[in-house]
Design a protein that fits this description.
Largest sheet: none
Distance between the termini: 35 Å
Strand content: under 5%
Order of helices and strands: HHHH
Radius of gyration: 18 Å
Number of helices: 4
Length: about 110
């Protein structure tokens, strides 16, 4: 599978959604769907790293699938609100690089 830019992913999702009369769900409905998908991801994380094993009757899913579902809904939400995710990512990274510049203990490369 080839790698894609966020812009390409946004366009691919938009092309997919645009083929349906219903189009994008409302932002509120997408937030509910995102919450649902995050719950499914949390369940998978709990199965792999927590104390709650899967029931034998439960469908086998992977965290990769669940993260993909979360990403799809986030892209849908961004597209519906006309948000460029690459720009949004740039803004948040700049915020972390400035606001949190000295918040965490850096790895000293000379110690390695």
């Amino acid at each position: 599978m080839s790698s894609k830019t966020i812009e390409e992913m946004q366009k691919e999702v938009d092309t997919y959604i645009s083929q349906f009369k219903e189009g994008y769900f409302s932002p509120l409905a997408m937030m509910a769907r995102l919450t649902e998908e995050m719950g499914e991801l949390a369940r998978e994380v709990n199965h792999y790293y927590g104390e709650k094993p899967k029931k034998q009757s439960e469908e086998e899913k992977t965290m990769e699938q669940e993260i993909g579902d979360v990403l799809f809904v986030i892209i849908c939400l961004a597209n519906s609100l006309d948000i460029d995710m690459e720009e949004a990512f740039g803004l948040v990274m700049e915020k972390f690089k400035t606001r949190d510049n000295d918040r965490w203990t850096r790895i000293d490369k000379t110690e390695e």
